Amino acid sequence: MKLLGAAPFTLFVWAAAGTLVGCGGSGAYQAPSAQSRYSYDVRTSSIRLVLPPSARRAPERSWMAPDAKQNDLLYISSEMTWDVDVYTYPQGRRAGVITDDPPGFQIPSGLCSDPKGDVFVTNEGYDNILEYAHAGSSPIATLSDPNEAPVACSFDPTSGTLAVANVDSSFGGGSISLYTNASGTPEIFSDSAIGLVYFCGFDDKGNLFVDGFTTLPSQGGVFQFAELPKGSSSFTNITLNRRVNVPGAVQWDGTYVAVGDVKTGVIYRTNGAGGKVESTTRLVGTNYDFQPWIQGKTIVVPSNRSIETGFWHYPVGGKAHKTIKIGSPYGATVSVAGK
Fold it and tell me: pLDDT tens digit string along 38-74?
C-alpha cells in the first residue's frame, strides 16, 4: 500500500538465500539474499519486502494451462513478485500466472470476480483496475482510477456495479469509486469518518459495506465500519459490538456480512447495518490475512507475512486443511468457469 501522511522507515535485515516455488509451478522465485530491504507500514504495523524490479518478478511471462478455462480458478496476488498466480480450485494445481507484461503490475493488491468469471485486479501503483476474462492472460479492460490508490474491490451482481476501495488519494483521504456496469468513469464517494479506506463488499441487496481507519494508527486512528446503502450518496457509520484491530476484507458470505481482523485472524459474521456480530470464525495459523476470499464452505486466506495461502473450512475455522506456497500473498478471489 502507498504511504501518505507519514514517511515509512526502512529496516535492513539478513535473509538466507533460497527459493520459493509455487505449488506445482514451472517457475521459481529467487528469495533475496545478503542485506534485503524491508519497509515498515505505520498504518498496519506491517513489515514488507522491497525488491528491485529485477528480483521482484518471476522469471516468466503470462501464461495459462491449456485446460485452465474448463476449471474454477483461484487467483492470488503477491507483493513479493508483483504478479497474480492462478491455481485450479479447489485442487490447488498451478494453472498460470498473470504478469501484465508490458508494462507490468505496480503493486497488485485486492482482487474480486463477477458471476461470469471475470477477475478484477486493483493495480495500486498505476491507479487503475485491470479486468481479465476467466483463464485470460491479457486484460480485456482497464479502468482508470485517477489520483486514487485502489487496494480492494467488490462486484454487485444485482446491478453490475464494481466498487473499488481507495486507501487514500492525492487529494487526501480514502474513498470508494463506483463503476456502473464495471466500466467508464467512476463516481467517487467518501466518508469523513474514514480517513483510510481499506476494504469493501456488497451484500445480497446491493448495499455496500466498507471498513478502514479514522486516521493513521500512529496518530491515534481507530477502526471504522460504514454502509453506503444502494442508491444513496451518503454513508451511514456503524458501530460493531466487537473490537477490530486492523481492518480486513469485507464480503457477503451468503448469510452475513463478514468483516475480518487482519491482525488476529478472526472473521466476524455481522448483520451488516445493525452492527451486531452474530458469530465468529477463528483462523488458526494465519499471519496477517489482508484479503481472504469466501467461497461457499471454504475460505482461502493469503497470509501476507508468510509464504503460504491456506484453505480453511468456513465458518468452522480452526486449522488450515491445505496450503499453497506463494511469497507475501495479499489478495484472493475465485473465478467460476462458465457452464
Answer: 343 434 444 444 444 444 444 568 999 999 999 999 9
pTM given for the model: 0.85
Nearest to 272 by CA among 206, 214, 331, 191: 206
Distance from C-alpha of 97 to C-alpha of 109, rounded to nearest angstrom: 15
Given a contact cutoff of 8 angstroms between Cβ atoms, the answer to whether 225 and 209 are in contact is yes
Whether 126 contacts 147, CB under 8 Å: no
The contacts of residue 220 (CB under 8 Å, 6+ apart) are none
Alpha helices, H only, the chain: 53-56
Q: Are 162 and 128 in contact (CB under 8 A)?
A: no
C-alpha cell read off for 94: 498451478
The pLDDT, as a whole number, for residue 14 is 23
What is the spatial distance between Cα 33 and Cα 17, in angstroms, rounded to a whole number? 5
Q: Which residues of 105-116 are buried (b: 16+ CB within 10 A; e: fewer)?
A: bebbbbbbbbee
Helix (H, G, I), strand (E, B) or coil at 272: helix
Q: Compute the distance between CA of residue 114 and CA of residue 155 in angstroms, rounded to an integer.
A: 6
Complete domains list, the chain, with CATH: 10-335 (2.120.10.30)
Q: What is the dihedral of CA 52, 55, 59, 62, to 10 degrees?
A: -40
Q: What is the largest CA-CA distance in the chain?
A: 54
Using alpha carbons, list the distances in angstroms from residue 277 to 52, 203, 240, 243, 254. Answer: 43, 15, 7, 11, 15
Place of cell 513489515: 47
